[in-house]
Amino acid sequence: MEALVTSSIPSKTLSLPFPIQTPSLRPSPSFHSVSIRERNSTTRRRQGRVHRIPLLRASASSSSTETVTAVSEIPAKMKAWVYDDYGAADLLRLDEGVSVPEVKEDQVLIKVVAAALNPVDYKRRQGKFKATDSPLPTVPGYDVAGVVVKVGSQVKKLKAAGLPLAIETANEGLERSGFSAGKSILILGGAGGVGSLVIQLAKHVFGASRVAATASTGKLDLLKSLGADLAIDYTKENFEELAEKFDVVYDAVGQCEKAVKAVKEAGSVVALTGAVTPPGFRFVVTSDGAVLTKLNTFIEDGKIKPVVDPKGPFPFSKLVEAFTYLESGRATGKVIVDGFT
To answer: Which family is annotated (predicted)?
Structure first.
């Protein structure tokens, strides 16, 4: 049985649960609501694969929900991984009787082909956001790629892919830090899903004068290929002891206490996870279609390339293993799950 997902996505913005809140969005990995425009696929590297992930665009103007692409039949039930309580990855269970959501006027229904895992997915499962989370049981996941099979009547423009949450997190953190052309930046965790995009955005979109990033020994070449001027091996060097200081430090690994020692006076420190030490700050991502539209040009031109972990894609049946791997902190770029159909 295919996997399907739907979710309410307003025409303007949607608050996403990174790092401290969750929306009223409960995607299920079978059909999901978003837009679709296909793009070309892959270029590979030994340390992480760099490739374009399919994008889809959909629009609707009729007064009723319409089918965009033909499928033999949209089933009433689907398979989905769910958890009934907060805790470790082994709480996830495969449920073959999850109801396919009804498509509302501001939603689209996607037949999912693949999905990307984000740290927020396991943090949500661990109960980090349960004060504001939707009721259990929960189907995890936010980023999907697939085929739109239904579009609500109020959907106008909408984009989706395997990297929206990560790229919007990367972009908004840079914007909120006041980063701009001619400034320098240090990214902690430059080989991760968000960090790898911060490097590219800082260099190719914001016009950074100097980009430095940390990673383990085997991933330094990847950092340089993405645009880092200085690749720091955190297993051999302490970045906070460098004589060079930076206008912005983007901490994607939870080392804010050290990060503030590497920033210039009056500089900014973006802290995605862990305890926040002033002048570090944390923010809630706001999903805005205009941002994806702007960044899409750079993606299509090949200036921004999503990095996919070489251990993937994990099959749908191995979702627990995929989460366990992501939570180990050893992933390079995005962890992909496929085999939904």
So the answer is: Belongs to the zinc-containing alcohol dehydrogenase family. Quinone oxidoreductase subfamily.
